[in-house]
Amino acid sequence: MANIVKTESGIDFLQRFSVRPKLIGLQVEVFGEDGPLPGDVIEINEKDTNLKTILLTQWIIKCILPATWKGVQIGGLEKVEEDSSPMSTTST
């Protein structure tokens, strides 16, 4: 069986990452209603590494999961995308 490698141009790569999802509602107690903005740096300063791991794991899970799945609310974030790049999203 032959391995097939898919390649993409630099422009395709940049276009793929030019639209970033907003993290509205990630954790209102920490970030407020609007959540962290794309490009924000988040510093976690805690002596207990277990607490940092739990916090980051919860954020990752919430970002990966959809808000609903097959009509059931599972607690992920709504997919709200914001175009943060002046580049065109069309490719040739």
TrEMBL record:
GO terms for biological process: DNA strand invasion; double-strand break repair via homologous recombination. It comes from Daphnia magna. One of its GO terms (molecular function) is four-way junction DNA binding. This is Uncharacterized protein. It comes from the Eukaryota. InterPro entries: XRCC2. GO terms for cellular component: centrosome; Rad51B-Rad51C-Rad51D-XRCC2 complex; replication fork.
